[in-house]
Protein 1
Amino acid sequence: MPAFWRDHPWGLRAAALVLSALLAATLQWVFPGAMVAVEQVSGDLTWRLGAAATPERRIVIVDIDESSLETVGPWPWPRETIARLSDRLRAADVAVQVFDIVLDTPRAGDALLGRAWAEHSVVAGQIFSIDARTTPKVAAVGGALASAGCPSFAPTSKGYIGNSRELLSDGLSVGHLTPMVESDGVVRKIPAVICHEGRAYPSLALAALWRAAQTGGPAPLTSDWVWSTHRFGGLFALSPAGWLSSASLPGMAVPVDDQGNLRVPYRLERKVFLSVPASQVLNGSVDPALLRGTIALVGATAFGIGDVTSTPLSSVAAGVEVHAQTLVGMLDHRLPYTPSGATGLQILAMLLIGVVLLAVVTRRRGAPVKRLPIAGAALALACYGGAATGLWVADLWLPWFTPAVFALLAATSLATAEHALTRAQRERLSAHLGAYLPAPVAQRLMATDPSGSMQVNLQHVSVMVADVRNFSAFAAHRPAQETAALLHAFYCIAVDVVEQHGGVVENVVGDSVLAVWNAYAECAAHPSQALAAAKELSRATRALLSNRARPQDDHLVQPLALGIGIETGTAIVGSFGPARRRAHVALGEPVSVASRLQQMTQDLSMPILIGPQLAEKLPAGSTEGLGEYLLEGMSRQYALFAPSDWAALVPTEQLWAGATASRPEGGSRWTDELRTPGSNSAFAPHPQRDA
């Protein structure tokens, strides 16, 4: 990860949200049909899940079904029969008769039927073609609104299928039966009005509603119909794109979208509508109480003559059901619509989603990478739930899929960003831990939880302790910056040499380094590797230590030199202490022996001393015995060894300095006596080790 994003995590999170928003907007722009299709299907599901089963008795469907055809005769029925059906409905005190049929062919009896329709508050049907490629003109159209002109949002028709002219009287209301069929064949909308030759023609349900409001008998549609459009945001974000209203229908405003369509409210199950066969109405076998005061929808469901369509509630439904659902919505003032500020509402929803996801990120408990996908899915479902609630509670058809897509994309992007940040932080922390702890230990600590228990292992290891001799006296005569720089260079060389020979620097204290082999990774030849590392470290630090000039003001300060002790054996390697403050150390006899051997390198004027167990594992001829000595703090004597080529590791000036440093009378301490086996009188106790 670039350092900029690692150091500015909130910038990375903001960029992830912006990128998700742009991607969601791009998907909506590139695939608008797919977005709308998902919302339409989800809306259908909402209608089905919430459809009420309460019986609806304000509307009765008079069904021209198969049984009616068997009783009365094949369709089309004589005009006299249809007139008699209208008379029967009038006699039953039906409030409004709505004929969901079109009688376009002139036939005998048209005048009789026309008079009956004019007297009985009938609303007849007609069909418009809103496809510019289809322009039939069959029979005659009627029922235009008296207002001049058409609303700008209404669809325009070039063709129609109307009724026989003799059926159209001045007092007859007519409504169109033209649905808006979606690409999947489902009827979800109906044009509120359709413009034809400069005049506006209402839908069947709208004409039926207006007719039901008339109490003075048949009359033409008046000029009190008005339409308005609204395309403003702000306080009017929840307003529809347009609406129709009439003084004859106080409190009623029919909301429409920017294409002049009203959305059909499928709030009722199909079975809630009372349906009676037309034949029973004709023969008078229907209880008049069932029809009194109702709006009677006369439609055909018989095979071959009925208009079959698909609705959100059923893939096979009669067209009369669509008009019935629309009428109920108008009567209840419950017509769903898409707000004009839908885009602004989507943006607001996306902002809220972003805030919630950022809150999930900043929550202290738990891993955001694990919580974010769950939160994203939950927010996507919440978008649908909010849209469903808005539909059922406030009649708002809210576009929800784009915010839902944004929620999923934003959660994924933020989870990816958080994973990258966490990984970068872990890598940075691991690098820092690896600088203070052995790399395997640091990696284990990164993968486990803090623990206050003792976590140790017994390992057969080789140990090397390397110390800069005479450093304390040297540092007393040098600036702190210079001594610090020297130690830094020494540590760097030591770590490089140890790691190149397969070891791990376990600890650094003052001017000494503790390294182990075979503690964290299997190393069969660790004794030889430890000796090779000791020799290489001695050679690598020679120039660093010898180039340091002695202070001129103190001739007693000895030159710097490196003393190294190495030993093999079983040691305890692990972590100790409470969870809040742990210490990782290597303990055991090989560590103690190697430390004491390093101290004795100055007494014996040896650059490297080897313990007895390590010497046993080295090839013959690679070591030189120095005798047995009682090491400080140890209860027994140890045989000490030096590399057979030790002389090549010591510069001439250091040999001389070692020979004269502690000579009481100028004689050398480095005598055959001191190297005689069993001679140990001069080495207990030892001078205090340099810090």
Note: The two ends are 42 Å apart (CA to CA).
Protein 2
Amino acid sequence: MESNRQMNFPFSAIVGQSQMKKALVLNAINPSIGGVLIRGNKGTAKSTAVRSLALLLPELNLIQGCVYNCDPGRPQSICGYCSDPVLKEAVSKPVQIVQLPVGATEDRLVGSLNIEEAIKTGTREFEPGLLASANKGILYIDEVNLLNDHLVDVLLDAAAMGRNYVEREGVSVSHESQFILIGTMNPEEGDLRPQLLDRFGLAVEVSNDIETDSRIEVVKRRMAFEQDAATFVAKWKDTEALERNRIEQSRAMLSEVTVSEEMLYLISDICASFGVDGLRGDIVMYKTAITIAAYEGRTEVNSDDVRESAIMALLHRQRRQPFQEPALDQERLDDIINQENIGHNNSRESSESTGEQGSSDDDPAPPESDDNGEHSDRDEEVNQDNDESSPSAGKDEIFEIGLIPKIKQLEMRADDQKQRSSVGRRAETNSASGIGYYVSSRIPKGKLNDLALDATLRAAAPMQKHRIADNSNAVVIRPTDLREKVRYSQTGTLIIFVVDASGSMGAQRRMVETKGAVMALLLDAYQRRDSVAMIMFRKETAELILPPTNSVELAKNMLNTLPTGGRTPLSSGLVKTMEIIEREKTKDVNSLPLVVLLSDGKSNVGLDGTKVMQDSELHNICEEFKFRGVRTIVIDTETGYVKLGKAKDLAEHLGGTHITLEEFATQNLVNAINQNRSN
């Protein structure tokens, strides 16, 4: 077993990333902290650190052959197999790391009915899942932000309760499932929902931004390990042993650590001041602080322990603005701690004042929103909108992003029966990946990949009296009886933003509100893991300024610097959009594009770049969208008392939905999407 361990890179040999390593060690000492979420870009030693952590943990005393890793020293928690009167041998095993794949099914995670035994003997026997294998070990989820939400819910429930409860297919099972939960993620690929983030005890940020000497040392150590792993591990053997002993001593000391009333007040003041919802943050800070004290060899928690615990426990629990990176104001944290050192009574009064101010700062609606909301220049002449001689039409301008309206999340449904991958959270569709909810069954077409046992047995049951069973099977199954599961899941979509950036958008600062509307949709796309693309049309042509990407942050940056000025080549914008859709269809024929056009519908440049623009040209292009069933939403940016209604006419020819910019913040976009489903 020791030789197997030597294949892992030593934990102590990891260069830098001290906070990540500290968070992992604290969870190894006290798993009740609730795990750790490691956020960072690729190549920051996240996976290496997790695998190396197992080297520092003492071997487990387990019952030989038990699939639940029962501890013979805890008879109150052993399973039915281990409670059998037949003597079971106890063995020592290293801590196991169980990795949960992103594409795992719920059956694989929690366990399911043993199909083989059901068919052979007719008995309902439970087949344990990964939560059983991870008991008393480490459950590692790489790219946890890409895991289906319902799996994350099940996973975190099991981690919080320490038990896995399974009720499915006539099987009712409960078993112990206590593990160190570790998740890693790349923030560029989307974040977890806030309620799921809160379920992780600690969160740390790691980065590649290290100095040159450290980078060189990383390369040297990695090359030395790859060339001769045994020699490299032996070099760090003593350092690893010291850290292992320190963890064991910390575990033994944990029950002796005390927390004074002053430190309890300090924990509560910090959580209140930073606007942390609920009490989970307070509890995690308490557990983390006592663990830090034990790790440092002390039996009493001090303010430094509380400060360090706050940095790791509150990073992901603060309210944030859209696209705002998580960060803890450490100067503010130090001020609270310094006030507490003066006197906790005064500090509570001060922190309450700070908390009220902080809640105001965290309000998603900025107090100065009136400046970007309604504008007095609505009273301007309406013909200024399309006046090429206006100042905004003659030069390029860059407008700020206006007030971001609150909208209900867009929902889509694939009305066809095509099977799609389950990466995303927006469109409801038939699943092609074995992931999702089991909703019905069907006769398989080709190879059977996802057996629906209940439907198969129902199909075989009426024929059993005409079939002769052999000695091994209780139920005789024929190939014609087989049924496969039809699963329903959610998939992502491609949202193509087509933005009118002509000079008329600068009049009455319409581009400010337009950018705010796009930001609201970008936030929705960010939460639903959609791909986004952005097309700008201005002057004589249209330009793809952002190819389809999963990085909504890039789209936000492009929007922020989007110039405004020139004429309005609307036809070119629509043609460019269709080109992008066709290109994406060649990559994935089952892709679900959604076009969001933000324009007043006024076009004055033809496809040939001339100033002559025929309505028939534009209508023919629109009819192509309608014929192909492309879902479109036209957000009408026209303002003023006298409106020409060009955008509404455009939406009718596109077969899409028309929403005015004024209605956008209040319009139920769910209904808008559902009204224009493709056939």
Note: The first helix runs from residue 2 to 5.
Protein 3
Amino acid sequence: MALVLNDRVKETSTTTGTGTFSLGGAVDGFESFVTGIANGNTTYYAAVNRDANEFEVGIGTVTDASPDTLARTTILSSSNSDSAVDFSAGTKDIFVTLPASKVAFEDASNDVTIGNDLILGSDSAVLKFGADSDTTLTHTDGTGLTLNSTNKLLFRDTGLYINSSTDGQLDLVADTEIQIAATTVDINGNVEISGDLTVSGDDITMGTNTAGNILVADGTNFNSIAATDLSAISTIASGDTLLAVDASGGGLKKVARSVLVAGLATSSALNNISEDDTPQLGGNLDMNGSDIVTTSNATIDLAPNGTGTVVVRGNTNSGAIVFNCESNSHGQTVIAQPHSASVTNTMLLPAGANSTLVSLVSTDTLTNKTLTSPKINEDVAVTSTATELNLLDGVTATTAELNILDGVTSTTAELNILDGVTSTTAELNILDGVTSTAAELNLIDGGTARGTTAVATGDGILINDGGTMRMTNVDTVSTYFASHSVGGGNIVTTGALDSGSITSGFGTIDTGSSTITTTGLISGGSLDIDNVLINGTTIGHTDDTDLITVADGLVTVAGEVQMTTLDIGGTNVTSTAAELNILDGVTSTASELNILDGVTSTAAELNFSDLATLGTTAASKVFTADANNLTTVSGAVLNSEATLSDGANVAWDVIASPVAKLTLGGNRNLSAPSGTTPAAGQFVSILVIQDGTGSRTLTFNAVYEFAADTAPTLTTTANLGDLFVFRYNGAKWLEVGRNLALTLS
């Protein structure tokens, strides 16, 4: 049995008294308790007597029987002082509700109060905190609760908390003290203490025998004993060693018992502790950031045994040795190749007495050594190969001669052009002072390339003047050709004569079988042409007399004009001759015809004015308004019925289809009207028909308004129809009438 809530569960009952309700079946548009809640489950219910001022809200148990029943298990509130109501006669509405007393809500302070347990039933339930839900508490089935990420569980203030700052680590933090009140604290692992360890008791108890190893041992415990005399360490063997604290900050040091005894014999305190002559480390020596130093110019010797080596290990970075200056302000670093290089190298020191790798005061020779990317003066890299450098072998040029190349920007390929040149210095000196570019000099080379540079007044032209190349002005060339006529023969061209002009007195131009073409205007005197052809069609020839004449912009045709297309002002005339002949005999003035100027009506729309086809008189076919703005129609006004397409969401264009019908093929939703926005006052109607199955539902969009804001319950019988009429008020479609359960055949 479970407590269940559901929507749209409602039945009626005529039960009287305080006993169990006998249910009368689901109300139209609702489900029964057995369907919505299920047999044996409980639910919150409300019972209201339609015929008396009686109500009851409580918890009831549903039973599937004949009839179904609802037992009144618990009364939460009622018209009988929150006790069971002794219902009188009449129809009671019994429906599922959520009592106000069972609703958790935010009060005026945004607090939510729950009277008893808060149960999160999911095995992976999550509690979220904060405006952005950045802190969560997640339940893991059979495991516990998880605080997300590195968030903290705080106590009192921000200085006291528990959290996990990194994976695998639990942090217990207090700004003053953490107190564990227990008889025994069992720690199953190593303990690391960054600060001081203070033991309030007498003993530090070890799990194993540590006699003679730490402080003063009695075989089991390390006892806190004040070492004021020799008797305090009398149990320690003479050859044993102890750990003592160096008060100067040196930490723990190993000291022999004999040394300690000697110190105690001369002083009440230990001023200096001497190490073993041959100490041995049981593990790594951690300098903890300190240095290994010597005094009195002593030498630090690293003396590996046999084939042992001194290794500077890498850790994240490659191993490195730094040689500092005497002030420790500068250093030279020798660094190993990185792991990615996958190489192991050996640097062998030079042989011979007093040999050095590099000397600052002498000249050193490198023999049989390969230099990779050497640099001169630290910042200039030598990229020449040995073969290229060997070209200098045997060069007798002086420094001054070689300096001639200083500043030369020519490439190797450009300098190689000089390879094999036999010119003398004097001949080459001709180039001295030449400012021409390579491109300008190449113009003398007989290439075929042609540019598109426009020629203008003042431009220069390169001319061969009797074997000497000279620059002259383009205007000089123009003057020369202007004073030297072309004669003594024909002008022959392989292309079109497409620039300049042919002046009077030239004579006759005989093109033979060639064509004279132009994209410009042929002007001048009269043009005497035997035939004028346009796309092969003759429009005039010498056998006709004044076939076509042109005078003052008027074209006169001595016969008929035939054409395929008439273009007036850039617009083609598409009217037929028959259509244009309609104007024959028209007596309308230009102003009367201009009435049509700006008319956008189509021919079909203008044909509505043709009243002769509608009746015997025009007046009988025209809608007119009287003095009261009333329009009288002698016959019926018909809106054809449109069939709407069935689907999950039904669309209805109320402008195109004000009268519509819809056959339901399933549970549907009637969407808000589509198409053009209607005008206030428009009436529409829709006939909703059940298909052969029946019991289909139709949900109306909120734009459809019904009495008491309650949508109608459709007839459920197959093939019956419900008719609804609406009026538009400018915002909503108001129901003005309905007719249900209509037989349509």
Note: Residues 530 and 542 are 6 Å apart (CA to CA).
Protein 4
Amino acid sequence: MKTKNYVLGNWEEADGVELTHYHSITGEQISTCSSKGLDYYAILDYGRKVGGPALRKMTFQDRGRMLKALALHLTSIKKKFYGLSAATGATKIDSWIDIEGGIGNLFANASLRRQFPDLPYYVDGSAAPLSKEGTFIGHHIMVPKKGVAVHINAFNFPIWGMLEKIAVNLMAGVPAVVKPSEFTSYLTELMVKEIIASKILPEGSLQLVSGLGRGILDHVTNQDVVTFTGSAKTGKVLKSLPNIIEESVPFNLEADSLNACVLGQDAAPGTEEFDLFIKEVQREITVKTGQKCTAVRRIIVPADLVDDVQKALIGRLSKTTIGDPSVEGVRMGALASKEQVNRVKENVELLMTNQDLVYGNMNEFEVVGANKEKGAFFPPILFRNDDPFNKTLVHEVEAFGPVSTIVPYKNIDEAVELIEMGKGSLVTSIVTANDKLATDFVTEAAHMNGRMLVLNSRCAKESTGHGSPMPLLTHGGPGRAGGGEEMGGKRGVMHYLQRTSIQGHPQTITAITKQFQVGADQPDSQPHVFRKHFEELEIGQTVFTHKHTVTTTDIVNFANVSGDNFYAHMDETSLDETIFEERVAHGYFILSKAAGLFVDPAKGPVLLNYGIDECRFTKPVYAGATVGVRFTVKEKIDQEKRDEEDIAKGIVKFLVDVYDETGETVALATILTMVKKINQNS
């Protein structure tokens, strides 16, 4: 069988054979792959001209719903992927991380639609006043790049590695060309086949190159985005390609790194934290056979606890059963390929020249349910380095397998220095119950890490662990880790958007942003906006309310009802050396009174008010002041129905501008309402 490429709307076999895939457990041939002869100029152009326009026509809400539909579909067929995943050497847990962790990224990014407008582009931040009279303002919008995302991925997570990336670019409205590692591209191909067959994504929004992909970056432009996950050495070579430099192509590098787990000085043997530390480190050594860019490579422990940690870790590692994951009791499978076995072995041999091997034998270890010689098996290896400031290979060499080293530290400053010697990591953990210790360590070591985990008994039950990047948090790290940044929720999506400042009259900026800007037209709404359905409301429509003169009785009554007897409201004798000239009305009374002025009480399309944003009290209101409200449609966001029984509705944001008899604004707020649609089938 030959792994195919999905390009230009078709499944294509490329010329020749670039690599043969072998089952990591049995050694049997699975397939071959090649990308020889593919026209990368045409492939990238197809994504830009076919996939790009289709995605850019969709709003963020549309794209979010698309990702959710895809996630639900893949969840329904997830069992299809487990069998082939086992060929990569993965245990069931390893496969779960890859398959269901990847699908989880789709769900997480789909949920981000609630943080974006119902537009194809994003309106970023608030307007900037640029003139005295308010007729000229500035704003920022972020539009999808008119290029493609080229993802060059690593062998260790053939599914997760793809899904965590494409979820973000698709949410942004940018198509992708995925080049998985040729070593495990057969599993990525299976996932892409199911995605394409579902017809959930617009044609051209996802293409797959299954072979080596030589020349795939030769035709990228400044509108494209390149991501690379793999070795720092290869990443630097790709990042330095002439076309990347000449076109100023955004390049996100996520490389291997020498991640650390630190045992706090308080976590002595017998504490819950000590046991957590041992369990966490053992898991990081053995899960995915240590083939994770986030795995613990340096085990940093107080000098007086090194012997205890070594003994405890060896005890747990000695119980690790290696072999065929389908056999009951096997806890660690194989490396992804024989090539990887050779690479890990070479690095272990190098590390042995500079530190002490305290557990593991590369040549003598037991394999259950499989032939050790045919499969890509490798045992857990534990080193000890009592002189890490002089024997420095531990800070320079990553074996990228089930290999880690114990190193001592005397104090927190020394622990931080050891972290820094790794020259940049994706993640560092500290296990401690001492919050001051955690604070001191995190604030001093964060500059060399993309992520930091503080683990103790209070969060252990729900912690996702050292090795698990989360889709709503950034994944990446400085220095050796590549200096890139992936995922990160809303932040991640913005990597595929171009931020552009726009300037003009508030009315024009309102038209572009689909958000009301102060100074834009405010046509008097007839009938009242609460009498209008979602489809009938237009940005800028305004209700100008009746007015109310505030009295001392109002202030006293609100204090009695609310229980807010703050001196500025109730004690005129206490106002010396304050900003107030006399007893001031409660800000929340002003807002409450504003609601009484702008609300049309009769039953209508407005279903409920569910929140307030950006509430500000801008000017004191004293007894005798007269207030009114300008109540304006600020923004509209469509909302999908949860099920057939749900009411079709949208979210409407209203600007509440409370002003006094001088015309000055005394309070501003944005209220969020659910408004019923006329069309209940949408």
Note: The CA atoms of residues 353 and 393 lie 9 Å apart.
